[in-house]
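Recap from last week: sequence in, structure out.
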Amino acid sequence: MSTRMYALPVEQTQWSVPSVGTTTVFNWEYDEGRDRLLALYEKGKDKQWNANDRLDWSQEVDLANPLGFPDYYVSIYGSDTWNGLDAKGRAEVRLNIDAWRFSQFLHGEQGALICAAKIVQTVPDLDSKFYAATQVVDEARHVEVYSRYLREKLKLAYPINPHLKALLDQAITDTRWDLTYLAMQVIIEGLALAAFGTIRDLATEPLGKALNAYVMQDEARHVAFGRLALRDYYPQLSDKERDEREEFAVDACYLMRDRFMGEEIWRNLGFDVEACVSHARSSALMQQYTKMLFSRIVPTLKDIGLWGERIQRAFVDMKVIEFGEVNIEELSKADEDVAAEFDNLRAARDAHVNKVIAAAE
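Predicted structure tokens:
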């Protein structure tokens, strides 16, 4: 990706993570495997797609409102800062918010690419290595599509958010393979699914909607992969080991909750950062949006057996404990179905266009 579109010079934000004691695990039991993970591996192979063919990149994007959200979706809507802006200034805010949003998706997907490759290297079970290999391809595709959307459509990008960077740092450097799963497959991917869903379901810009719908179809499999692997593994751990994982999950959830205040946006635009963040935190819409981001994480953590007092207290504090009753299998099935609907709509449109062209010849 060209670095010229970044809000800050890339030299200031370039990041490398040193390898710390990663253990590569070989497994010679080629004829063994868990049926559900092998079935997920088969689905992972069948569901590969080419972004050049499945998405219509010819669609134009309005830079004054890239995703077509109403103004009240802007986190500083109604603030003194927002009220003091003219139409051009508000358009600049909307562009920067969406560029920041898609930039964090992009950086998170690169983190997922690296973590999936690490899982292939470190996980002890061969069926997990098989599926993680398909996820590596998925994540490369996601980096491709978000990079292209930013580069060709928005022409602006932001560096990685410090909170996301901190969690990725832990996921990449921790030597325990299950912590990589927990950070990436459950927490980062789970939160991303909810964020993608907001765009898929509520935005009006067709390319952004379709892009996120197709990425969600992949991510639903990735979260299922983490659930299946960790649900088998965590019952084998001691109480002390599970407590360590719960503490990690609690800290990670607070990190993710705090990453959506957009400090980098307001700083880049020259606004009063403290005032903008304060308004965003008090916004009823932002509070509801932040809450919904945990609709995938909470039931998944409960499903894999990380549901002790510490984690329940944290979710009560975040006001998201009720998501523990959500059926995560039904959500994943819905993600698959919605992506299929987007395919059907495009097929119908293409058939109509071809019919019109044929009639005109």
